[in-house]
Specification:
With 175 residues, this protein is mainly alpha-helical. The protein folds into two domains: 3-102, no CATH class; 107-153. The chain has six helices and two strands; from the N terminus they run ααβαβααα. It has a two-stranded antiparallel ribbon with strand order 1-2.
């Protein structure tokens, strides 16, 4: 922002604002404030409007341009009730921005999307586990069936009529 705009906001004369800045110049490094060049200033001015005639209507000095940090510093340098109130508002704005960065507002749509995504993943895991159990159960049933078939084969061999051991007694036919 330019010095004359800030002077209007702070309710002071541009001359007094610049005076305070010059008295406290160590508080305004180049990244807080700089003086606009003649070419920059001329490009800012309207080419159509004509100047009003009168002594002291327009500054012969180039304006200062203030960055965000420079505006905050300026409000602490100026000694007026408006500047103090502006400084307090600026500090509160910084605190509010910091809070927003640390605790971003909850986006309900994003939250629901994340919950749906987590639910889908959970369901896929459950079905995968279910399919794994079914596969394990199928394999176990096949093993049981094979074992039962082997046991039946052995049982048939065990239950075959055995040939008698020892002397065979003659069988008599009864008539």
């Amino acid at each position: 922002m330019l010095d004359f705009d800030l002077a209007e906001i702070y309710g002071t004369e541009t001359k007094r604002l610049k005076e305070q800045v010059r008295r406290n110049i160590e508080r305004f490094p180049d990244d807080f404030m700089f003086e606009v060049t003649r070419n920059e200033y001329n490009s800012l001015r309207s080419q159509i409007a004509t100047l009003e005639i009168g002594r002291g209507k327009y500054s012969k000095y180039l304006p200062f341009a203030f960055t965000e940090q420079g505006v905050a510093m300026l409000s602490s340098v100026l000694n007026s009730k408006i500047a103090i109130a502006a400084n307090i508002r600026i500090m509160r704005a910084f605190v509010a921005v910091r809070q927003l960065i640390l605790n971003p507002p909850v986006n309900e749509v994003k939250e629901l999307q994340n919950e749906v995504r987590e639910l889908k993943q959970y369901m896929e895991d459950v079905f995968t586990d279910y399919n794994d159990i079914n596969e394990d159960t199928r394999l176990q049933l096949e093993l049981i069936n094979e074992t039962l078939a082997e046991l039946q084969t052995k049982n048939k061999e065990l239950n075959k009529p055995r040939t008698p051991i020892g002397f065979a007694a003659p069988q008599y036919k009864q008539e």
